[in-house]
Specification:
Layout lengths: L4 E4 L5 H8 L3 E4 L5 H7 L5 E4 L7 H7 L5 E4 L9 H7 L2 E4 L5 H17 L1 H9 L17 E5 L3 H12 L3 E5 L5 H6 L3 E2 L2 H7 L2 E4 L13 H5 L5 E5 L8 H10 L2 E6 L18 E3 L8 H20 L9
Parallel strand pairs: 1-2, 1-3, 3-4, 4-5, 6-7, 6-9, 7-8, 9-10, 10-11, 11-12
Helix pairs in contact: 1-12, 2-3, 5-7
Length: about 325
């Protein structure tokens, strides 16, 4: 075993912890506070997190000169201050492949739940009702699904949508049209996506360019009754604008796994009768968590050893 020390600051799969322990001295502290982390991080060569822990500038600065790598078990790295990591020479890696199937399946679960009012029907029946007329829904068959970004997860959703007989279009300014077609989608402009889609599924990262990209102006260009799902990142959809669009009937329903503020509490959006809400659980399958833990363990150990990295963020 090497002399490397690794702090695991969030819960990851046991297989991942085992993998890390095979190559380093590991301190598993999944409930560590921000204050404790800042006080202890200088004693470690690597830090492994999920979404709970916020790796802010003070954490990164407190880690140097010993801290060499931060590993994010999962895709999104918006909880890690990347400019500071670059400035102090800390490598950031993630595990982008682990949750692809889980999030794609969760997205489809939201699509079906919104289309067929499944949560509403379930709750109503358990309360003694029989809301057959109120449960009138729509089919996915022959509807147009618009994907906002078509990376790994978007492409996986497109594959499932085609199996349901949907027409799939996509807007992604970072993927050329031939690659969009290879991923099973017809490339369109952002304006066309808004105008043509019966369902819209969001798969973009949260960036300054995508923040609130689905807001009042965008909703105004959509079909009346459009249904929207998002298991990507909170903040891409302007939640106040979405609530207005739901209340006006412009948006017929929404399935949301991510929010601008989490946990949400019983907000007017979450409790809206045409919203299906889940607690940022798209990646929460046993299989995805096992893959994420093992993948990030391997990548962190590679980074410490100076080996070539597969998933270096910065």
């Amino acid at each position: 075993m090497s002399n490397y020390r690794i702090l695991v600051a969030d819960s990851i799969a046991a297989e991942g912890v085992q993998q890390l322990r095979a190559g380093a001295d590991v301190s598993y502290q999944p409930d560590i506070s921000a204050e404790q982390l800042a006080a202890e991080i200088g004693n470690y060569d690597a830090l492994v997190v999920r979404s709970r822990t916020k790796v802010k500038p003070n954490i990164l600065k407190a880690g140097v000169p010993r801290l060499k790598v931060v590993g994010r078990a999962g895709v999104g790295v918006d909880n890690i201050d990347l400019p500071t990591a670059q400035a102090v020479g800390v490598t950031v890696v993630n595990s982008p492949l682990a949750a692809t199937v889980a999030v794609a399946e969760h997205t489809f679960a939201l699509l079906l739940s919104v289309a067929r009012h499944i949560p509403f029907s379930d709750v109503s029946i358990k309360q003694g009702g029989w809301p057959k007329k109120e449960a009138m829904g729509v089919e996915l068959y022959r509807k147009t699904l618009g994907l906002l970004a078509v990376g790994r997860i978007g492409a996986s959703v497109a594959k499932r949508a085609r199996a349901f007989g949907m027409d799939v279009i996509a807007y992604d300014p970072y993927v050329d049209e031939d690659n969009v077609r290879e991923r099973g989608c017809e490339p369109v402009s952002f304006e066309e996506l808004l105008a043509k889609s019966d369902f819209i599924s969001v798969h973009a990262p949260l960036t300054p360019e995508t923040k609130h990209i689905l807001g009042d102006t965008a909703f105004g260009k959509m079909k009346k009754g459009v249904r929207i799902v998002c298991a990507a990142r909170g903040g891409i959809i302007d939640e106040a604008a979405l609530l207005d669009a739901l209340n006006s009937g412009k948006v017929g329903g929404a399935g949301l796994d991510v929010f601008e503020v989490e946990p949400t509490g019983a907000s007017p959006l979450v409790t809206h009768p045409r919203v299906v809400a889940t607690p940022h659980s798209g990646a929460m399958t046993e299989e995805a968590q096992d893959r994420a833990g093992v993948d990030i363990a391997e990548e962190v150990l590679r980074a410490l050893a100076g080996d070539e990295l597969r998933w270096k963020v910065c």
